[in-house]
Amino acid sequence: MLTFSLAKLKAQDYKKDSLQFKIITNIKYNSSQVEDIKLKKVMCDYCTDNQKKQLGLQALKLAALEQYDPKNKLENGIKILSIYIRLSKTDFLALK
Questions:
Q1: Does the predicted model carry a pTM greater than 0.70?
Q2: Which domain of life is it from (predicted)?
Q3: Which of 78, 83, 33, 30 is nearest to 58 (CA)?
Q4: Confidence grade of residue 56 (pLDDT, cut at 50, 70, 90)
């Protein structure tokens, strides 16, 4: 009982002290090979341009890793990925 309560308390602290960002990326496939990975949109109303740029670069790195996942592969076409990044508020402020 006590461990469950502590785990729940830690999870709530994490939610209070963190921010979640949604970033949309596109992976273009041609003959089952990745042709291009593009950043579509960083959803953040209060981010500076530099913070959006840093979040976008991180999302592109994550999308590059996701291209190898069999559920994301296509024969031909564009796979749209929604990538969620969660940062603590202090780490987010350090993105200046």
A1: yes
A2: Bacteria
A3: 83
A4: very high
